[in-house]
Structures are given as C-alpha cells and as structure tokens.
Write a structure and sequence with these properties.
The protein contains twelve helices and 14 strands. By secondary structure, the chain is α/β, with parallel strands linked by helices. α5 (74-89) crosses α6 and α9 crosses α10.
C-alpha cells in the first residue's frame, strides 16, 4: 500500500489582490463578475507588482528573466515545498531514491525540473524525471507509483508539483486569466515500505486527446483555453469521478472529505450542489491563492492535514490540459 509520509506547499511572497488588478493593472471585469464567476480574491506571483503594471506581461520570455532576478522560479518554489515535505516525513534528502516532478511553465527546456530540484536539495543519483499532465499531475504521479511493482520502487519517493502561471498570463484589460492564476508548489514524500499520515489508493486516470487544443500554453506564449467548454467538462467529469470512487469504495457523501481541482470557487459550488456534498467537508483554498495548477489539490490536503483525524477519509478528483483527469481515495492513519 502506498503511503504519504509528509506533505509541503509553498506560495511566493508577492500577493495580487483583486483591487490591484482592477485599479492598478486595469482589468476591465469588475468585482461583481469575479464574485459571480470565480470567487477568487487573491493569488501570489513570482513577478513584482510593478512589473505587471508596467508591462501587462505581454512578453512571457521577459517575465521569466524578471522572475529569476526576483529569486523565485518553479524550481525554487518546488524545492521549498519539498523541504517541508521532507521535514514532516522525518527523512533527509540523501534518503530519497527518486524525484518525480511536474512543471507546466518551465524556465528551462532541459534539464528536467526533477533534476534541478534534486540538485537544489542535495539528493543523489536516481531515476529522477518529470511526469507532466498539467493540472492533473498530482493524480498521475500517485497512479504511476501505484502501478509499479513495490520491489522496483526505492524506499522513499519525492513527488513535486510546481508552476508559475502568472509568467504566462496576459494582463491586458480584457483578460479573464489575470483573475484566475497564481503561482505555487506542493510536494509529497511517499513510500510503500513505511506507513505515514495517509494511505493512498488511486482509482482513476484517463485522457481525452481530442481535447488537446482546449487548454494550451505555447512554448513562449500565454495561457489560452476554451473557457466555456472546459468549465462544462470540469464540472461533469469531477462529479463523475466522485461518484465512481464513492461507488467503488462504498462511501456516502456525509462520511468523507472531498477535494477537487482548485480552478474556481464558484465552479466547486456547482459540484457541491450537483452531488449534495456537505460544504464543510469539501476542502478548498482557491479563493485565497488562485489556481496554482497541479499544486492546488495537494496544497489543500497539506494545509488541512493537522485538522484531520485517524480514520478520516478523503476522495480527490483533479483534471486539466490533455484533457486529462484522475482521482482516488485516501485514509488518515
């Protein structure tokens, strides 16, 4: 059985408020639109506020250079989240046998983000690699490990999800994406040989290649998506995954905590309504940190881990570009 021994997360130091986006950046969609469509009130960025105001981030390649000069990149964020996870797990970097990372917005084409994070942490040789499935990468990482024979896995595996979407966000006046995206990272230490805070059982992972053009980031361009289509797909597929996992495990809504992809607070309200989920048992943070891609779901769990008790059950379901989606079951031990 796969266990999570430690979790961590990291958000950059610079906060972007809605007031800043409306009054200083000049985004035209006002508070009423944000309240009714998103329910996101702040997010964090590797960029400086002055840079966003002056440039509206029209050239993402320059934004990468600016973020580097600020000392915050997907790699530095991933390393900071990983240090938290290692500390909580009570293990040292040199004990990690494999680093798996996701990074939708790499500043480097090569080497892999996993290699760079391993170097930053002082982790030694291993089959370190990136497994990228955009916002569903947390589920993909867990499923990849679960599908492997236990004897082929090292004693400890470190998984990291990190991205800096604000570097790929257009902040021109008509932008909707400026309200949505934040930067951040999450990390998990996993093992099949040691028990930890959470037992994990991944149950779903699928893709829909015909939807490949629905959510796209060009190699040097801005994030773009077919918003209406993605919103409908996200709600429908998340509901299907929650129902599928509940059926397989024999669960009822009032028994479990649920965690979805942290894309949109209002969209999650729709999921809660469709499935009649107890709102107080649906864990989320998108309202306070924006959509931080694959790091969203695991960061929610990391932030709530101390409030959970032995025997508590969690159903998670995430999705993203690909289109790809995945989910599973966790139990607090």
């Amino acid at each position: 059985m796969l266990s999570i021994l430690g979790m961590g997360y990291y958000l950059p130091k610079t906060e972007i408020s809605n007031d800043f986006l409306h009054k200083e950046v000049g985004l035209e969609r006002g508070p009423d639109w944000v309240d009714s469509r998103l329910g996101i009130y702040k997010r964090y960025t590797v960029l400086s506020l002055d840079y966003i105001v002056k440039t509206k981030n029209q050239l993402p390649t320059l934004a990468m250079l600016h973020a580097r000069s600020n000392g915050e990149t997907p790699v530095t964020m991933g390393a900071k989240a990983a240090r938290q996870a290692l500390k909580q797990a009570g293990i040292k970097p040199e004990q990690v046998g494999w680093v798996i990372a996701n990074n939708d917005t790499p500043f480097e084409t090569i080497p892999s983000t996993a290699i760079l994070i391993a170097k930053a942490l002082g982790i030694g040789s291993g089959p370190h690699c990136d497994i990228n499935c955009a916002c569903s990468s947390f589920a993909r990482h867990i499923k990849a490990l679960s599908d492997m024979k236990e004897e082929h896995l090292p004693e400890f595996v470190l998984c990291v999800q990190t991205s800096a979407y604000t570097v790929r966000t257009d902040y021109s006046p008509k932008s909707m994406d400026g309200y949505i995206w934040g930067d951040g990272a999450a990390a998990e230490v996993l093992s099949t040989r040691h028990s930890g805070r959470l037992k994990v059982e991944p149950l779903v992972f699928e893709t829909k290649p015909s939807g490949a053009d629905d959510i796209v980031i060009d190699s040097a361009g801005h994030f773009i998506q077919d918003g209406a289509s993605v919103r409908e797909f996200s709600i429908r597929k998340t509901c299907e995954m929650f129902e599928q996992i509940a059926q397989v495990k024999g669960l009822y809504a009032e028994q479990v905590y649920t965690v979805a992809h942290q894309a949109n607070h209002v969209m999650q309200n729709s999921i809660i309504g469709h499935l009649h989920l107890p709102a107080d048992r649906h864990l989320r943070n998108v309202q306070d940190q924006g959509n931080i891609a694959a790091a969203g779901c695991p960061s929610v769990i990391a932030q709530n881990l101390n409030r959970l008790h032995k025997g508590d059950q969690i159903v998670y379901a995430v999705l993203g570009s690909g289109l790809a989606w995945g989910g599973g079951y966790m139990e607090v031990t």
